[in-house]
Design brief:
The structure is a single chain. The protein is α/β, with parallel strands linked by helices. The protein has one domain: Roll (Chitinase A, domain 3), CATH 3.10.50.30. The chain has three helices and eight strands. The strands form two sheets. Strands 3, 4, 5, 6, 7 and 8 form a six-stranded mixed β-sheet that branches. Strands 1-2 form a two-stranded parallel sheet. Strand 3 and strand 4 form a beta hairpin. Helix 1 packs antiparallel against helix 2. The protein is globular.
Length: 147
């Protein structure tokens, strides 16, 4: 792990904890296991301010290129559940893949439980969409993706 622990922005951690609390009623065991694993990792995460966030750490709205076994590369944007749309490669933060990637950095390799079993993922690239905080919640700025 590039930074030793997950790196999480303070307000995003609180937002994610609220989402995970609501999602604990999911019936799917893979989702439950993913939420429990991220909850455990958040206990040891380095919590920092938005100004301290490294640009290569995955967070809400990050665009992430990963490599899965057999050299399959895919690019996803990590979004809130209401913006999830797999046709547009927008994956919910509460999906097993979103939970697996959150807080990790470019170059990290992780192993996670997915519906089809345990799989490894290598994070090849992380791009950030600019954000601004409004009343403690994040809104997208329409200036595109920056790094």
């Amino acid at each position: 792990m590039k930074y030793g622990n997950l790196i999480v922005e303070k307000k995003e951690k609180e937002f994610l904890k609220e989402l995970m609390a609501l999602a604990k009623y999911y019936r799917d065991n893979t989702y439950k296991a993913s939420i429990e694993k991220l909850n455990e990792e958040l206990k040891h995460a380095k919590i920092i301010t938005i100004g301290e966030m490294p640009v290569d750490v995955i967070r809400l709205d990050s665009v992430v290129t990963i490599e899965t076994p057999y050299a399959v590369q895919k690019t996803y944007q990590i979004v809130t559940p209401d913006k999830s749309d797999m046709r547009k490669n927008k994956i919910s933060i509460l999906a097993p893949m979103g939970l697996a990637l959150f807080g990790y950095a470019e170059g990290d390799e992780i192993s996670w439980q997915f519906p089809m079993g345990v799989s490894s993922i290598k994070i090849l690239q992380v791009l950030q969409e600019e954000k601004k905080a409004v009343n403690g919640k994040y809104n997208e700025q329409h200036s595109g993706i920056s790094q």
